């Protein structure tokens, strides 16, 4: 048993550990930073080609994590221990895990997991891919392959480890809260830091003066610019840090709106980019001194963990002549769930095709995998490719042989080029001509050789949404590849398929479950491979794991008379987070059940991937005070003790802290009615030129009022919509929403009900955010619809007027989504709407002048979204364009019209309808003048008949924009039209006759006005 | 041999060392701080009664120490290692020295010294007494007994240790510059920090925007106030730190003038005070939790160093009957030079008197001492006090005995009260009466007993300028007392004089030279004491040490054909810095000799207490590239190797860095002519309401112009004074003066000459600061005088007009010194001056309105200073007051008049002169009307004669204000005055006669007008 370490000993132990690993030990930065990453020892040193290995403590200040010292592990200041390894030493996960052992954490006693967590700092223009490391459900470390900083791609990539020291101490010391962590033999963390938590929380949430902080921000930014103008990298970086901290405080005060946030991030990112570029220039000018420095002493990484010894090259030996099994394992660091699924899907499709292309006969192809491995298994693979016979066409026979039948130069040349004698050529008839041909037979090569050549390409062809690089091979993958196993055959006769990829040499060595010794071992062939992994409890197939998880969680829930709500996404995700799923049931205090159900479930699922537990047969609204977690541990043998108490304890601690946090927020929030949050919206900038969120809410209310007739609201609905408009943004100022933005609207509804608002008002607050994404539900009530539309109209007209229209693929204010929501709502509700007038009304409330050009741009922008929506619904572009040119300003009408038009086009008599109309249009569409029709001017009966039919048609009642109505009144015109054109010369030399007839046709063409322009239709 | 530690190992070693000592290991603060003291782990935790032991690294940011990375050990950022021990563990020096050994520093190989250095932070309202710890001349640690923080006296006192980590690393690794310090096995300090030094230096000195920083300062201050209004201690403290750093940057930009500095310090101090008070309240409210915490585990200090074992109480045993030697040693931590001298002087005077008061006969009294001990030795001390016989007077004899000679009740009562029988009483004649008397004999008590009682009081009666407390005894002394030795007698028969003081028990244990084992040892008596100390090379008498130092430095200088400039102050100081002086000669590069001599000498003396070396017989202006340092090490035996190379090396490194620093400043400064610094004065605020130093210089120039006639300047002098006025403040913007303010004027002269200014101008720039203190030299040139007077007139009239007159004993702008300088200059130059007009002229140039009241206040303030000057010159107050009431507006005249008046008063015929004049004054002084004299109105010859004598007197030419001239014309009037009063009735009943006679006397009284008002004289 290692003695329990106190907090300061944890730090000193890590310092010693990493110093021994060759890291320089550095100190915390002299500025308030949100993370150790912002210390120039990371933010700048990761840039450029120079090696850099460093470790340091960093007190990290995150104002909005302040909890007045009341949360067990959430504080406005926590201590990080930051490590940078540049370049990747090849085994950073293993070194990291050894550091946990140095701290006395026995990994065999715990559930240690690498859970996807990608990291991005919009302010620093930095991102990386990696994981949260979970210790019994608790995030104790952020592990990132740092890909970009200051907007600059990193080469080489740095490994960044960020230990959360309090979390580790809580786990090591088995205490319930940061307050109880033993810091030194005499004092606890609470003794020395509690007061700071209380006071700084109060300062950040209640006291900090928004106006003064804004001024500070501007001053800091101006100084950063002044420094950059002089090429001063570090002073500029310091001021960016000050900007960033000031921003964080403003944000905690709830004073930064969505759009302002983007603007400030953009400004900081731009500064960071300039700093990064200046730093890189500087290092280049200095000729990269650290590249020389490393000569002094090599980092000690290699010393600790022996590299994998692979067979260097495969020697062609006696594989059996018959079919052999083939196994290839790509050993990786933990793949994200989505990437694992994507890779498995791709390989399942690709590998059989590839083998066919390679003319390798084979039996079953089985693709399996876990977060740590992708496995391809092929049974009965032919040892050799099938032979290939190809006929190659040469010159025409008459040119290959002369009249005497002797080969010409051309003939001889062709034979020579194929390595054949003239006698080997054959004359064949091809496409009606006669040609000399060569038949070339390609003998099948051994599978071993062919696979050696194609496997690198196969691996490289796996595509992921987000890719990363990690070593000098510059190969990109979802996560680093750490070993490659490729074997043909079984047992003594098996052979390594030898190739190199991503800096690795393939071989027969694999790795089992983490922490089971030996960490690495060779296998003789597929049989041993599958046996040994199964022996460790690894379930290679995702379906196996899903079933195992479902069985376990169902059983564990059943033991407490509960059931698991059906949630296939969560099940699939959890099953792909582990190699050996082991369900564990934890509990939490029933007092937390008073929190809104959405909050509890959000917290359990989003943060912890826990299954919530409902009462058996009870109402679906209830929850039991349990959760089911799924650890990555082999299940104990039947009857053996679970030995998982420590893991359950850890998980319970985590969820307790999470719920305490939510509880803190909700409790604080309901201290006052929702309406009382409105004044705070005045500090929450929507966008600099467009004022605060309070201003926005007021505009929404005014717009609801203006547009009430369009929304077709009755009196009660209008009253509810007015109230909902007033309150719709109020929850943005509540703690719970500041913390979990995804609960906006949800909390608004909850708090509104809590404040005694009408249910319709509460629902409208929730619904005005709908739809949140394509395919999301729409508002169910008229007031919700009205507020949501008004909100979106205001955003779009305002942002365009402020010169912030999206450009290229930049859409920082998510205006595409806004416009799509607008369109989807109108279509869904089939609400006829005059967008142009509505936008005009919206513009009238703006604090700035919306130019006619900007208004036109918004209309075009919405029309483009509408077009995309309709296209994605499967309508052909010609129908869509025909309708939109006529009624893009009314999405519901347009959608209806396209639907109708699409039906007409499908009609069997369409080829009689369209031509009849088209004849009327084609002959008149170039005319600039509109001719009056005089009944007296008709001289032929056909034209008179047509005119009468037209008058009848025009007299029919029609819905504006209705394509059906148009065609229904048009159908009777078809015979008279056809007769007209058969009998009457429109382009009479008599001007009066001509103009009268053209006028008649113009009137017919105009029947479709406002519905569609049929000229856009194919076949017009 | 300990392996050389790299920088990070030094830190980790200190962390481990102090953790083992029971200190909590803390982290650097997240804010730019000038010192670890500002970390709340010190600044706040030292307050209040709770124990607190902590250690941490602190990167300390001092913008004005930035040297662009060019100085070997001066940087804008250096690393401190800070330790707080609260309460004092009793042996902090010893623990500290052990920490140096843990770092591999063998104290026997080096010269380790505790050199007085008191610490004060005006911004934090904090101060403490202690030392710089020198390692071979290099300051490596600041060691402070922290007495006050945030304006609050500390109880208990904290011990504060601040290691300078780069200095230690430079010494340990034997490198020449911070750039070469090995930080980790792979990297140097230069590798990781040089760029930061270059960039931040440039930022702080050249780029930082003064206007923006001022705005930041105000914003930070406002936030601090907002926090305090809510009782938030730590957030308020954070903003004070930001104020402080911002102030430091402004200061480095040269943007803070003397008066503005005071104002800003005052504001920060006030904030600090409020923070301290709020913190104390908070801890009290929390019921001082750390007082309970300590119960958990006692700090480990005691474990390491065994406490001194003293004989607990002295048992009265057989001291010989004859006279015995007496020895008392007060063992202290290193006393400051001034305190050592003061204590020795006091004891030399006090001890013999005390022994006499105690009726203890004694031989020679010898007082000696070193920085670590005060020693009292008395030879042949009587073992017993002399007996005392007292005669006590009782009732008169006739009341003590009745007529029959029998004792009365009164007689019996008296006898009983003295414990005597009636027969023991004697009747004696006292003061002409007969009384019964009792003769009481007091038998002398043993010296041992008497001394036990008085020694504590004797020690307590030693007074020091600055005193400190260190432990719970709350005794105050110059530095902590750590042991007490007090013995009577020699050898076997010696006895401890047993008493307790300052938490210590006296005994027979002493300590020798540091680092010689055993650290503590008992002595049998004075003889062994003196022998053993002498055997270690300790010279107990300061005169011995002075002689030894002088001999050594003279010899060492002579070896390089040099001599030491006569400097008794330096000699006395150096001799009192050591117990065992050992002179060492170091050298420096001759290139530094191009620096101004004043700079070189200032640097050597002020910072290092080195003796500079002049060439033998050469011009006094020259210097040789050597210095003599005096270490505290026993000289090696004759012929043995000095073994001091490492000490010399260390000292040479220090002076090299110091000169490099001065060189850096001067080189930068002379890049441009002095006049080019003027624009920078615009950023240097003199005082907020009074504008910049540039404004001030312009006012001085204008005032010189206005007052040129009063200054009696000729044309060339006026031109020079104008130019000097323009330039007089320019050197304040130079690096050298910003660094060493004491060189203001000196550098101005140097740079002016360097810029091609006239020598008279350069001299005037230097001289305008004269006199800098009472007794300092005066300006030698008229232009220097004129500029100096104008400067002072501007300061006084301006500051008073701005409402900043000194009040009580607060004089932050040193206006007393300013006024004294003004007065001294005028008197010294005997320049008649119209202060009132001059102040009026000064006021006319101010940027604000000077009210008549403020102008009157200035005049009064100057007059008070003038009065004090004259009183201190020994003139009797009546003479001074008589003159000042007449001519306080002309100090030179007033001084002359007082001198003259003092001579007249000494004259033997003074008693005829004053009464004659007084008669004329007394009879007229109550009159409110002034009567005209009409010659025709005189009817008596005596009054006519007096009138004629008056006319003659009035016709004599006289200097304004001259007392001599007054008396000389008055003397002939005395006989006629006396005759007049004898014969003429002034107060005639005839109104016309009476008024004419009174008018005559009024004319006589008025003769003294403008010289003095004789009515103030004694005997008037």
What's the gyration radius of chain A in Å?
36 Å
Quaternary state of the chains: homodimer
Query: What is the CA-CA span between the terminal residues of chain A?
Result: 86 Å
What structural category do the secondary elements of chain A indicate? Answer: alpha+beta
CA-based shape of chain A: globular
Largest interface: A-B, 62 and 62 residues
Largest sheet of chain A: 8 strands, mixed
Q: What percent of residues of chain A are in strands?
A: 15-25%
Number of strands of chain A: 29
* Average pLDDT number of chain A: 91
Unreliably modeled segments of chain A: 295-315
Count of discrete alpha- or pi-helical segments spanning 4 or more residues of chain A: 36
Explain briefly what this protein structure is:
2 copies of one chain form a homodimer. Chain A has 1020 residues and is an alpha+beta fold. Chain A has 36 helices and 29 strands.
């Amino acid at each position: 048993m290692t003695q329990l370490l106190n907090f300061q000993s944890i730090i000193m132990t890590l310092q010693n550990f990493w110093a021994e690993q060759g890291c320089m030990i550095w100190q915390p930065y002299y500025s308030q930073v949100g993370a150790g990453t912002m210390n120039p020892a990371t933010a700048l040193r990761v840039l450029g080609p120079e090696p850099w290995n460093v470790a340091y403590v960093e007190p990290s200040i995150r104002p909005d994590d302040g909890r007045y010292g009341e949360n067990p592990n959430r504080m406005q200041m926590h201590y990080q221990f930051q490590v940078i390894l540049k370049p990747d030493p090849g085994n950073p996960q293993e070194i990291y895990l050894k550091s946990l052992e140095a701290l006395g954490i026995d990994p065999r006693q715990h559930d240690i997991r690498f859970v996807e967590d990608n990291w991005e700092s919009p302010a620093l223009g930095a991102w990386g891919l990696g994981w949260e490391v979970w210790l019994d459900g608790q995030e104790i470390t952020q592990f990132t392959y740092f890909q970009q900083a200051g907007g600059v791609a990193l080469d080489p990539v740095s490994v960044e480890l960020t230990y959360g020291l309090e979390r580790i101490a809580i786990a090591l010391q088995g205490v319930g809260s940061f307050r109880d962590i033993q810091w030194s033999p005499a004092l606890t963390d609470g003794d020395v830091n509690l007061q700071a938590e209380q006071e700084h929380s109060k300062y950040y949430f209640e006291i900090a003066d928004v106006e003064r902080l804004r001024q500070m921000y501007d001053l800091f930014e101006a100084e950063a610019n002044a420094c950059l103008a002089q090429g001063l990298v570090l002073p500029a970086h310091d001021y960016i840090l000050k900007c960033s901290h000031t921003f964080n405080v403003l944000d905690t005060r709830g004073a930064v709106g969505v759009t302002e946030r983007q603007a400030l991030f953009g400004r900081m990112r731009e500064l960071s980019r300039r700093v990064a570029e200046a730093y890189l220039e500087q290092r280049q000018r200095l000729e990269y001194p650290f590249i020389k420095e490393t000569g002094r002493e090599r980092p000690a990484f290699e010393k600790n963990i022996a590299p994998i010894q692979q067979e260097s090259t495969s020697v062609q030996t006696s594989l059996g002549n018959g079919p052999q099994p083939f196994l290839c394992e790509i050993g990786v660091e933990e793949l994200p769930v989505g990437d694992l699924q994507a890779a498995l899907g791709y390989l399942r499709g690709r590998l059989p095709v590839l083998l066919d292309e390679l003319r390798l006969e084979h039996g079953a192809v089985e693709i399996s995998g876990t977060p740590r491995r992708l496995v391809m298994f092929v049974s009965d693979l032919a040892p050799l490719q099938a032979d290939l016979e190809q006929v190659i066409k040469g010159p025409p026979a008459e040119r290959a042989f002369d009249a005497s039948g002797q080969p010409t130069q051309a003939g001889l040349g062709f034979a020579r080029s194929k390595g054949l004698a003239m006698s080997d050529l054959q004359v064949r008839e091809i496409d009606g001509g006669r040609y000399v041909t060569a038949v070339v037979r390609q003998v099948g090569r051994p599978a071993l050789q062919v696979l050696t050549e194609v496997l690198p390409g196969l691996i490289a062809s796996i595509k992921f949404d987000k890719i990363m690089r990690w070593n000098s091979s510059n190969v990109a993958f979802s996560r680093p590849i750490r070993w490659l196993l490729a074997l043909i055959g079984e047992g003594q006769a098996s052979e390594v398929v030898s190739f190199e990829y991503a800096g690795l040499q393939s071989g027969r060595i694999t790795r089992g479950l983490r922490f089971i010794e030996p960490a690495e071992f060779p296998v003789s062939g597929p049989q041993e491979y599958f046996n040994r992994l199964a022996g460790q409890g690894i379930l290679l197939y995702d379906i196996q794991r899903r079933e195992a998880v479902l069985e376990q969680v169902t059983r564990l829930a059943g033991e407490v008379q509960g059931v698991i709500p059906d949630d296939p996404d969560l099940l699939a995700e959890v099953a792909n987070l582990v190699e050996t799923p082991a369900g564990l049931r934890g509990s939490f205090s029933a007092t937390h059940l008073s929190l809104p159900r959405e909050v509890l479930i959000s917290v359990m699922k989003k943060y912890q991937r826990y299954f919530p537990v409902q009462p058996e047969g009870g109402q679906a609204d209830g929850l039991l005070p349990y959760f089911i977690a799924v650890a990555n541990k082999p299940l104990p043998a039947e009857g053996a003790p679970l030995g998982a108490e420590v893991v359950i304890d850890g998980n319970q601690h985590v969820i307790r802290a999470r719920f305490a946090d939510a509880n803190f927020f909700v409790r604080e929030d309901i201290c006052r009615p929702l309406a009382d949050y409105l004044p705070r919206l005045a500090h929450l900038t929507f966008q600099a030129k467009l004022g605060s969120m309070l201003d926005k809410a007021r505009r929404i209310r005014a717009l609801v009022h203006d547009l009430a007739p369009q929304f077709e609201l009755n009196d009660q609905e209008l009253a509810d919509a007015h109230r909902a408009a007033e309150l719709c943004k109020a929850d943005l100022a509540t703690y719970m929403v500041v913390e979990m933005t995804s609960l906006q609207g949800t909390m608004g509804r909850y708090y509104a009900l809590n404040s005694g608002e009408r249910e319709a008002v509460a629902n409208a607050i929730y619904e005005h955010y709908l739809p949140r994404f394509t395919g999301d539900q729409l508002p169910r009530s008229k007031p919700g619809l009205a507020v949501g539309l008004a909100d979106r109209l205001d955003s779009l007209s305002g942002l365009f007027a402020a010169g912030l229209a999206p450009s290229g693929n930049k859409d920082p204010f998510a205006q595409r989504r806004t416009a799509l929501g607008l369109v989807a709502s109108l279509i869904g509700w089939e609400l006829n709407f005059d967008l142009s007038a509505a936008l005009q009304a919206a513009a009238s409330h703006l604090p700035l002048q919306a130019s006619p050009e900007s208004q036109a741009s918004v209309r075009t922008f919405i029309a483009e979204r509408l077009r995309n929506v309709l296209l994605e619904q499967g309508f052909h572009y010609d129908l869509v364009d025909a309708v939109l040119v006529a009624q893009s300003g009314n999405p519901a009408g347009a959608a209806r019209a396209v639907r109708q038009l699409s039906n007409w086009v499908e009609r069997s008599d369409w080829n009689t309808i369209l031509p009849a109309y088209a004849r009327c249009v084609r002959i008149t569409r170039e005319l600039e003048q509109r001719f009056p029709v005089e009944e007296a001017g008709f001289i032929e009966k056909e034209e008179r008949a047509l005119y009468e039919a037209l008058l009848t048609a025009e007299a029919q009642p029609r819905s504006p924009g209705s394509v059906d109505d148009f065609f229904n009144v048009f159908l009777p015109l078809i015979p008279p039209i056809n007769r007209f054109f058969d009998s009457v010369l429109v382009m009479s030399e008599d001007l009066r006759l001509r103009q009268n007839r053209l006028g008649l046709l113009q009137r017919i063409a105009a029947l479709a006005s406002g519905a569609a322009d049929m000229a856009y239709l194919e076949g017009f």
